[in-house]
User: Fold this.
Amino acid sequence: MDCMIIIPARMGSTRLQGKPLKLINGVSLINHVYLRATMANIGPVVVATDHADIASMVESSVITGTAANGTERIAKAMQMFPTFAWSGVVINVQGDMPFVDPDIIVSLRDFMMVNPSCQVATVAKHRTGQRNGAVSVVMSSSGRALYFSRASIPSRGTDPDFDWYQHIGMYAYRVSALQFYAKCQPSRHEIAEDLEQMRFIDNDVPVHVMTTCLDPGQEINTPEDLEKANA
Assistant:
C-alpha cells in the first residue's frame, strides 16, 4: 500500500507568527516535526507550505499557496503527486508536534491498512480530570467520531475525574476523501468550532478514531509553549 506523510505548515500563525521557523534547542520547529515523521519509516515525508523559507528548511517540500487549513493544504499538495494510488494512505502530521511519538504515526497507517473501507481516521487519547483547553472528541460505540469540540464534551457534571478523550491532531486520508473535502465549502460546525475535521462530519463522511496510549507530546501553539519547550 502506498503511504505518504505530509506536514502542513504555514508562516502566518495568528498566535505565533513564523511558527515553523521558531527554534527549539537550536533546531527549527518544522525540522523537529520532519525528523519525527521520518523516524516512522513508512513512506516519503513532504512538507506542504505557503512559504519558501519554510520549504528551504527540509529535504522534501511543495509550495501550495494559500489554504484555509491543513487538510485543504494537503489536498492541494496531492495534486502534485498524480501517480499516488487512490487506495493509498496520506498521513497528516501537524507542523506543531515536535515531540510526537513516531509509533503513533505507524499505528495510524496500520489502522488504515486493516480497515480498507475507512476514508478518514484520526487519533484520540483517554484522559481524566481537567481538560485545559484541549479539543475533546465524543465517539460512537463503533469508534466513529460523533463530534469534536473545544468545549468540554461530554459534560463531566459534578465528577472531577470524569473520563474523556482528547483529540490528537493527526489524520489519515484516502485520496478520494481529500478531493471530496476540497470541493466542499467550509461547514457550519467547522466554522463554529474552528476545527477542520468537522467538515467531514457535517458532510456525512465517517471519521474513525484510533485510540492510543502513546504520548503525542507537547504541541507548540503559543509563545508560552515555545518557552516551555526550550526550558
Residues 3-229 form a domain with the Spore Coat Polysaccharide Biosynthesis Protein SpsA; Chain A fold (CATH 3.90.550.10). Residues 8 and 48 are 5 Å apart (CA to CA). The mean pLDDT is 94. The radius of gyration is 17 Å.
